[in-house]
């Protein structure tokens, strides 16, 4: 039994003793926190979709495209707050940022059940978008600060699949509430989900307050030994650019990473709109499926998403390369969308296409890991590109469904399916360009973290704390030391 446990630990955390001890603690604290938050995020967003087709539409008098406007209001504010959210994580301890956002998000979700008009829900969604913006991109930034290239894809996949589980659970919860809690306490079933999700969020926020380790450079995690803190701060290597100054804007706006990674992620997001906006549920309604079936069957999309995400991420980690699985994802975009465009004569064809396309949610893990791979040399570039990657995505997603997937087109979304086919196909040539630039700049020594000798101390720590933090560390105030003061800068 001991031998089996040892082999399992080696498979999960590697054979290097220092890495194994550190990763075991991170995988039981940092990763569960972000995974649970993303799970609740999925439950919350699914609750609006489920509630809409389960009584909220009639109760709050949603008209025409009000449902689309509700999602658009949320997405616009969510997108705007992405880059400020990731940027602030480089100057404020992440623990404070995440917990404050979690608690506010919980309160806003609770208030939703008291709304009496559609416009009130639209406004609340907009406000909630601002406080939930940090959930995804912030987690991606923090995970990329703690895990190596050979570790990151799998951990990011675990984080992402909890979001899919949350979306699945949202449908199941609403289906269960329709049958069990409708009318309890004088409340319709669709209101109960907002109450339940709000209550679920608070203990997770408390868990984060206790276990978020901030960034490696803070050396603030109480559950890590002094040696593990030092190992975490140096094992990924040193960034080449670390300070907030006027050169930040030149470095960012002249980098190919800032443009290409967000652009390809945007194409992915537009392609999978065929899986969003209640498209499958509305199609099922036109075929005579029951309301419970409309809530339950689409959740299988997220089951295939989990399978695809974890499979592609593990393969990319083992290869320490992201382009091979990216090509497979690109071809799946084309095949699944082409089936929908062809208008299958049987329901089975539609179910197959929807579930096949579910596997293409994998870029949430694979392409964010790819972005971390090619921006790790520059802290600010990574922080801003992480936020921009989702912001640029949502800059299109906010209006795309209004044109290609309006609820008024249900159940015939042919123009949307064609749009998904085109955007999915465009990812393939872009993958080739990114691969070429990554190989070129790696060969030139432009990208990639610098090796660090732990014996040199703080002067070359991962996030570049510089001389001022060294003085603070000597005084014993490690956890409050800033990470964006004067720092070592390596010209390339």
Question: SSE layout and pairings?
Answer:
Elements: H1 2-13, H2 17-26, H3 30-59, H4 66-80, H5 82-88, H6 94-112, H7 118-146, H8 149-180, H9 189-211, H10 226-234, H11 247-253, H12 257-271, H13 279-286, H14 291-296, H15 299-319, H16 323-341, H17 347-358, H18 363-375, H19 379-397, H20 400-404, H21 414-444, H22 466-474
Membrane topology: Multi-pass membrane protein
InterPro entries: MFS, MFS_trans_sf
Pfam family, one: MFS_1
Verbal overview:
It is found in: Membrane. One of its GO terms (molecular function) is pantothenate transmembrane transporter activity. This is Major facilitator superfamily (MFS) profile domain-containing protein. One of its GO terms (cellular component) is plasma membrane. With 492 residues, this protein is mostly helical. The protein has one domain: MFS general substrate transporter like domains (Growth Hormone, Chain: A), CATH 1.20.1250. Helix 12 runs antiparallel to helix 18 and helix 15 runs parallel beside helix 18. The radius of gyration is 23 Å and the shape is globular.
């Amino acid at each position: 039994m001991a031998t089996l446990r040892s082999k399992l630990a080696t498979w999960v955390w590697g054979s290097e003793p220092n890495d194994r001890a550190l990763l075991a603690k991170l995988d039981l604290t940092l990763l569960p926190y972000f995974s649970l938050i993303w799970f609740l995020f999925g439950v919350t967003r699914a609750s609006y979709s489920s509630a809409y087709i389960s009584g909220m539409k009639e109760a709050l008098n949603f008209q025409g495209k009000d449902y689309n406007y509700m999602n658009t209001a949320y997405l616009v504010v969510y997108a705007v707050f992405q880059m400020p959210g990731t940027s602030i994580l480089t100057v404020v301890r992440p623990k404070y940022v995440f917990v404050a956002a979690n608690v506010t998000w919980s309160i806003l979700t609770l208030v939703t059940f008291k709304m009496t008009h559609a416009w009130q829900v639209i406004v609340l969604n907009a406000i909630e978008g601002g406080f939930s913006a940090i959930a995804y991109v912030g987690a991606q930034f923090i995970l990329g600060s703690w895990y190596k290239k050979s570790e990151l894809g799998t951990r990011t996949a675990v984080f992402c699949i909890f979001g899919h589980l949350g979306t699945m659970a949202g449908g199941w919860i609403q289906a269960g509430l329709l049958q069990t809690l409708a009318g309890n306490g004088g409340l319709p079933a669709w209101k109960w989900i907002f109450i339940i999700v709000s209550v679920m969020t608070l203990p997770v926020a408390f868990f984060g307050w206790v276990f978020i380790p901030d960034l490696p450079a803070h050396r603030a995690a109480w559950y890590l030994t002094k040696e593990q803190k030092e190992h975490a701060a140096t094992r990924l290597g040193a960034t080449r650019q670390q300070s907030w100054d006027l050169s930040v804007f030149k470095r960012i706006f002249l980098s190919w990473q800032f443009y290409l990674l967000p652009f390809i992620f945007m194409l992915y997001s537009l392609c999978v709109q065929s899986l969003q906006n209640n498209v499958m549920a509305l199609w099922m309604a036109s075929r005579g499926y029951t309301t419970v079936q409309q809530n339950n069957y689409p959740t299988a999309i997220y089951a295939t998403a989990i399978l695809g995400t974890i499979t592609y991420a593990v393969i990319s980690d083992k290869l320490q390369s992201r382009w091979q699985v990216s090509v497979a994802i690109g071809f799946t975009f084309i095949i699944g969308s082409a089936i929908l465009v062809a208008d299958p004569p049987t329901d089975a064809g539609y179910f197959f296409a929807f579930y096949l396309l579910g596997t293409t949610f994998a870029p949430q893990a694979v392409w964010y890991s790819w972005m971390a791979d090619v921006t790790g040399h520059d802290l600010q570039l990574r922080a801003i590109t992480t936020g921009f990657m989702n912001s640029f995505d949502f800059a299109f997603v906010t209006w795309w469904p209004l044109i290609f997937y309006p609820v008024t087109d249900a159940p015939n979304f042919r123009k949307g399916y064609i749009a998904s086919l085109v955007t999915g196909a465009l990812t393939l040539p872009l993958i080739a360009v990114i691969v070429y630039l990554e190989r070129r700049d790696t060969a030139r020594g432009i990208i990639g973290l610098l090796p660090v000798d732990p014996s040199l101390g703080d002067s070359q720590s991962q996030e570049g704390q510089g001389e001022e933090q060294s003085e603070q560390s000597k005084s014993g105030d490690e956890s409050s030391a800033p990470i964006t003061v004067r720092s070592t800068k390596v010209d390339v």
